[in-house]
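Final report, closing paragraph on structural work. Over the funding period we assembled a curated collection of sequence-structure pairs, and we close with a single example.
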Amino acid sequence: MSIKNIVLAAIVGPIALAITPVRAESPAAAMVSHPCAGCHGTLGQSQGQAPLIAGLPATYIRSAMLAYKSGERASTIMGRLARGYSDEEINAMADFFAAQPWKPAAQTVDTGLAAHGGELQASRFCSACHGPTGVSPSPTTPNLNGQYADYLYFQMQDIQNPAVGISAGASVMRAMFTGLSEEDKLALAAFYASQK
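Its predicted structure, as stored:
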């Protein structure tokens, strides 16, 4: 390489780099990493009582967000947040979280209660959709294994209450929950929370 080419490369190279557009983080990635992180964790792996959403099926996340957005699914905060997103942004969010690994939450549960919940889930046919340990065999049904027990319990409360708006898929569960006592719901929540 000649001196002329070296000098030319030394001058033109930095200029070319300086004027090359910098690839910014996509709006969808920024949307996912900031507003959702406060409750669900940056990658959807909540460290608190907000539900784990990393690794849930994209179709489930999408349908949940659209149900929150339309008001079909009851919520305290999620409906207000969901109304701020376009359908395209919801699709990007669903794809992002679905691509993250599912990691069951570290939590302590009452083993006796969990054992009762295991018996209940078998007799209530929960495993038909959620699998025998809460690992869903379906691409449209959420995993329950290792989900926060309190979240699962409150979801069952909502599903069982006819005054609370739920998504269409939950109407099947509403019928299956007929006759469940408070202890039964706590037991089912403990069972699924204990599964890894």
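The two ends are 61 Å apart (CA to CA). The domain at 27-98 is CATH 1.10.760.10 (Cytochrome Bc1 Complex; Chain D, domain 2). We thank the funder for supporting this effort.
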